[in-house]
Design goal:
Strand content: 5-15%
GO molecular function, one term: NAD(P)HX epimerase activity
GO cellular component, one term: mitochondrion
Pfam families: YjeF_N
CATH class: Alpha Beta
CATH topology: Rossmann fold
Helix content: 25-40%
GO biological process, one term: negative regulation of angiogenesis
Shape: globular
Structural class: alpha/beta
CATH superfamily: YjeF N-terminal domain
Low-confidence stretches: 7-14
Oligomer: single chain
Number of domains: 1
Number of helices: 8
Order of helices and strands: HHHEHEHEHEHEEEHE
Number of strands: 8
Strand order of the largest sheet: 3-2-1-4-5-6-7-8
Largest sheet: 8 strands, mixed
Mean pLDDT: 91
Distance between the termini: 33 Å
Radius of gyration: 19 Å
Protein name: ApoA-I-binding protein 2
CATH architecture: 3-Layer(aba) Sandwich
Length: about 250
């Protein structure tokens, strides 16, 4: 009997399909479907993703593990959706008793982005007016950096200021970097040539093709996805433990 069970378990293990890594087109199609057919709101998705990012950070860097006396975190936000996710992440980190500071050099005129910015300001989260180019100042002031800068929508072959300069600084910092969805400077579909090298990556919805070459700590936040979408795109998402909204891959 044991032998039969063993062989059926082996057969089951063999039929588990590998996790799907998305191309830019697939990623965009899933998001469009969530917004148009499933009636998710943009604000709702950004809130889900931002909260999941904050939870992943608490998992990777619990308050008790931080090297500095103050639980300081620097969140660098870009002008597009990844930047909005960074703002939500910062707000949740504040609720979880971290001390985030936001650097947001080019604010978007998009209403949602402005709403998320106001929410952070109302939580008394400070905003930096400039990023020190002296890397040691960043190393000394913060425990880690959250990279919510360029994300999957950016053209990594054509990164303009101020982001190209920020990338140069981030490549030199010694404290850990956590990237949201796609590390800044990486192409969605290719391993990094010239981007930063984060310690932690938080993939949203499903991992992107570039993450196949990522060797650091990798979290996935995609439990909210409707089952029919998971099936249609053959995402083969892992089993999330208990009631967790994210999993370490």
């Amino acid at each position: 009997m044991d032998k039969m069970n063993h062989s059926s378990a082996e057969a089951e293990a063999e039929t588990i399909e590998p996790l799907r890594y998305l191309s830019k087109g697939e990623m965009s199609a899933i998001e469009t479907e969530l917004l148009r057919d499933y009636r998710f709101g943009q604000q709702q998705l950004i809130e889900i993703w931002g909260q999941a990012c904050a939870l992943a950070i608490t998992r990777a860097y619990p308050l008790s593990s931080l090297a500095k006396k103050q639980p300081t975190v620097l969140v660098i936000c870009g002008p597009d959706q990844n930047g909005s996710i960074g703002l939500v992440c910062a707000r949740h980190l504040r609720i979880f008793e971290y001390e985030p500071t936001i650097y947001h050099p080019k604010r978007s005129s998009h209403n949602l982005h402005q709403d998320f910015t106001v929410q952070c300001e109302k939580m008394d989260i400070p905003f930096l007016s400039y990023l020190p180019t002296e890397v040691q100042l960043i190393n000394d002031a913060y425990n880690l950096v959250i990279d919510a800068m360029l994300g999957p929508e950016a053209d990594c072959a054509n990164i303009k200021e101020p982001y190209s300069g920020i990338l140069v600084t981030l490549k030199q910092v010694k404290i850990p970097i956590v990237s949201v969805d796609v590390p800044s400077g990486w192409d969605v579909e290719e391993p990094s040539q010239d981007g930063i090298n984060p310690d932690v990556l938080i993939s949203l919805t499903a991992p992107k093709k570039c993450a196949m070459s990522f060797s650091g700590k990798h979290f996935l936040a995609g439990r909210f996805l409707p089952y029919d979408i998971q099936k249609k795109y053959e995402l083969n998402l892992p089993e999330y433990p208990g009631t967790d909204c994210l999993i370490e891959l």
